[in-house]
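Hi R.,

Quick one: here's the Molecular chaperone Tir sequence you asked about.
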Amino acid sequence: MPDFESVKRYLTNLELPIIEEDAAAEIVVVSDEDSGVSRLVIDCEAPLLILEQRIMDAPAAPGELYKRLLQMNRTLVHGAFVLDEAGQAVIFRDTLQLATLDELELESSIDALSLALAEYGSELLSYARPSADK
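And here's the predicted structure, written out as tokens:
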């Protein structure tokens, strides 16, 4: 069964730089700005591999955003746009089974994040809270 070291090896083979690592918690953070992957947290929580990337703060009045997230999720190949537990942030989340994980499946999940951001990134940001600088 693949383990934390296997996941790190897969990421290295995929040329995704590990920018942070907590070996004790079996968590790595990777980034590839060219593909939209920014601080993607990959957590080995046997029996699952959990992938999460923060997209943006949730807006103060998110009603329409919730509907759009559900519509967007219908088109995603892997993962989903979700809210964090506090309802304060929109994140991309995917879970994979560690027991059957291979490099291609991990790559497909990360590619799905990149494709989702390419397709919906601008629209998602249109729902973001206005910056205090504006």
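Helices lie at 4-13, 63-75, 103-126.

Cheers,
M.
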